[in-house]
Amino acid sequence: MSENVTFKLTLPNEAATERLAQQLARIVRAGEVIFLQGELGAGKTTFTRYFARALGVTGRVKSPTYTLVESYDLTNPNHEPHGARQLHHFDLYRLGEAREWFSAGFDEYLNPHSIALIEWPTQAQGALPEPTMRLSFEHVDDAADVSSESFDGQRQVRITVPVSVDVRALSLE
């Protein structure tokens, strides 16, 4: 297992979430798995939408709340430094137990040609590989009851990345 560094950032608004997603999209590579954690409405899906856009996804980026996974082709030649052909966005909130990950065939989505964002990874604990990055979102203010489709209130995100990532380059300015 490689060494990691963890740090926190405050996301004062949705624009800051967009900037963070763009910056992380520039450093992610094919085959990597990113865990997204946080309560409902904490900003996981909002982050994913901007992350997908930064990788060149042009169509609608939907929440996989009921489908458990949404996949997107990454064919835009302007966004190929990551080397991935697909982005898979998992929302495991409704997964009953870890073995359902395997019975659904989701393990096959994780391959050297894809990038995976996994919301609610604890629902498949023991079945998932160790993530390359881990982002944990939380509300800073009392807006814990906001809709998952909106971004109201300030968020804080704890980010764990390999020590090889220059965290000084991750600025929201």
From TrEMBL:
UniProt keyword terms in alphabetical order: ATP-binding, Cytoplasm, Magnesium, Metal-binding, Nucleotide-binding, tRNA processing
Chief place where the protein resides: cytoplasm
Domain of life per record: Bacteria
Coiled coil: none
Annotated compartments: Cytoplasm
GO MF term set: ATP binding; metal ion binding
One GO term describing the cellular component: cytoplasm
Entry keyword Magnesium: yes
GO biological process, one term: tRNA threonylcarbamoyladenosine modification
Pfam families listed in its UniProt record: TsaE
Protein family membership: Belongs to the TsaE family.
NCBIfam families: T6A_YjeE
Protein name: tRNA threonylcarbamoyladenosine biosynthesis protein TsaE
Organism encoding this protein: Hydromonas duriensis
